[in-house]
Task: structure prediction
Amino acid sequence: MRYWIFCLLWMLPLLLVAGNMPVSAQETEPSSVVVIGSSTIQDNNRAAAKDLAVAAALDAAVEQAAISVFSPEALAQDFQRFSLVIRGKTDAFIDTYRILAESSVGNRYRVMLQATVSAGKLQEQLSGFRNRAATPATKPTVLFLLAEQNLDDLSPTYWWGENEGPVFTVAEQAMAEKMKAAGFEVVDHGNEVPDVTLEAAIVFQPDLDNRDAVDIGKSLNADYVVVGKAIVYQVPELDENEIPAFNATLTARIVGTETGEEISSVLETVVQKNPDPVTGSREALMAAGAMAGEKLAAEALSRWQARTPEVAGDRIALTVTGTRNLGNFIRFRRALSETPGVKDLRMDEMNPDEAVIQVAYEGNTRELAEALAMMSFRLFRIDIQDVTETYIRISLAPQTDTL
Result:
């Protein structure tokens, strides 16, 4: 009895502390996520490919945990800083991980792992994102132009063709869900041939070029179009007792309809085993579509936020001469991207000794010019040549006193 009384008295302070623990402490509990990473097998070195695939999966785990801790809108507002914080440092946020499955198909090595990410460390390193949540703004709209070939039909299926009935593609549905979750509005395209001048030509084209895709996107008031194709087939069985495997390969790219610029592209390959062909092929297409949707959404949303005045402000045209020394220019561009207030960089022109960069900056040209003048490099210096309200011209000049 004395022993139990002693234990109770010893534990009572701990119970009182736990009962008075602030609610915010719950937000720092580790986040457990399951992710997939892949890499290319070089020179038949599967061990190195596995290490790279694990590293890619851990990067994805930290990014996924960050989105669960902070809103996607808040991260997108300051995506440049977010990228700088986690770049090359994802190991610092991983508490534990274990590999659930791994496989190699062709020259690709893939791993599925479960990782425990420290939400507390993320909150510490990314402090301020929650308080900078974006004010409600117009969501970007995206139209899918994705052709799909399944096990039942050797001909690709696509909604903009002349179809007798509704067309449903599995990969598109998975991509749409991911892009909706990221903040996009998906354009309902229906199953009618788009009302564009190229109608007679596109109905027989499962593979659209960017120009035709942009025309269709504009006709349906889409800000972006996702163009591509997906195919699934059964992998030949090596053993009659082996569970059938199904390979889905998806290639896609996202294009802005305003400029016709191709923002990003992906190639995803997934292998799923299932005794039922319908279920197995569907699972493979859905997995490939989900991975592609996440990657395309991240890049396009970053571009959209950068061009929104509430987020990035007006862009400043920065003309840089003396770029013939590519190493100096790369050092300058890296320093510029890390400058406080710089939200986004976009290369407009790249000539033999001159480059034009569009800079989204939280301030005016005079303030940016002052920040540039404060930069110090060992091999070169920055000479400010001209500053206007929308334009800065500088030169990367060699240091005359370099030892």
Observations:
- The first strand starts at residue 31 and ends at 40.
- Residues 149 and 155 are 6 Å apart (CA to CA).
